Fold this sequence. Notes:
By secondary structure, the protein is an alpha/beta fold. 36% of the residues lie in helices and 25% in strands. The chain is built from eleven helices and ten strands. The strands form two sheets. It has a six-stranded mixed sheet, sandwiched between helices. Helix 4 runs parallel beside helix 7 (166-178). The longest helix has 16 residues, at 196-211. It is globular.
Amino acid sequence: MQEDNPGMTSADISPSPSGENVAVATRSTMLQLTNVDTFYGPSQVLHNVSLEVKSGEIVCLLGANAAGKTTTMKTIFGLVRPRHGTIEFEGGRIERKLPGDIVRSGLVLVPEARRIFPRMTVLENLEMGAFIRNNRAEIKEDLDHVFQIFPRIKERIKQVAGTMSGGEQQMLAMGRALMSSPKMMCMDEPSMGLSPILVETVFNTILRIRNEGVTVFLVEQNASMALSLADRGYVLQTGRIVLSDTAPNLLTNDLVRQAYLGGG
C-alpha cells in the first residue's frame, strides 16, 4: 500500500449526492465518536477524531499502516481510554465503560489477527462468545445459526482452534462475535493474511451479516473490497480523519485511488 497523500483534504472529495437515499439519511445513529483524542503515554495517536455509524450501515475506516485504525477500535472498546472527546453507542456514553459492559450493550469486536483461543476447541471458542448470556435455548439457536453461516466451522466443532487455517480462524472469530447476539459488529482487518478467495468469502459473509440486521464498522487496508461493500467511508491519516464520503464517491476519487487503490 502506498503512503498517504499529505495534501488530501475534505475539499478533494465531491460532496455526497443531494439525492442520497432518504431512508439512509433518516436512520438512527448507533455509534458516534466526537472529537476523540487518544494517547499512549505522552504520544498522541488520535487527533480530534469524529465519525458516526448509522443503523443498518456498513461503514469502513481506511488508512495506511500506523494511521491509528486499530487504536480507534481499542478506544471504542475501552481497551485504551480517550483523553478527550466522547463515544456514544445508541445514545449512551461508553468511553468510560469496561469492555465487558460495552459488549453487553450490543457492540462487539472481531479483533485484528483474529485472537481466538488457540488451545480451546471450536465449540469452546464459540461458547466464550456467549459469556454474557444466560438463556441456553437462545444460545443454542444462535449456535445453529453460526453453523449455517459457517458450515466449515461446524465440521470442525471438536477441533483445537489453533490447528485450523487462517481462513477458518477468521470464520471462527466472526462466529464467536455473533454468539454475543450483537446489534453492531466492529471488525479490525478481517482480510489480513487471507488468500483472495477467502477474502471474498469473508466480505460476502460481512454483507450477509449486515443483511440479517447487524450494523458493521469495518477497519480495513483492502480499500477496494471495503469500499465496494460499504455504504460510507472515512480515511484516517496519522491519527486524523482527512476524508469522509459515500463509498461510491471514495472509490472514484482520484486521490483515494492513488493512495489506497493503486492508482489507475
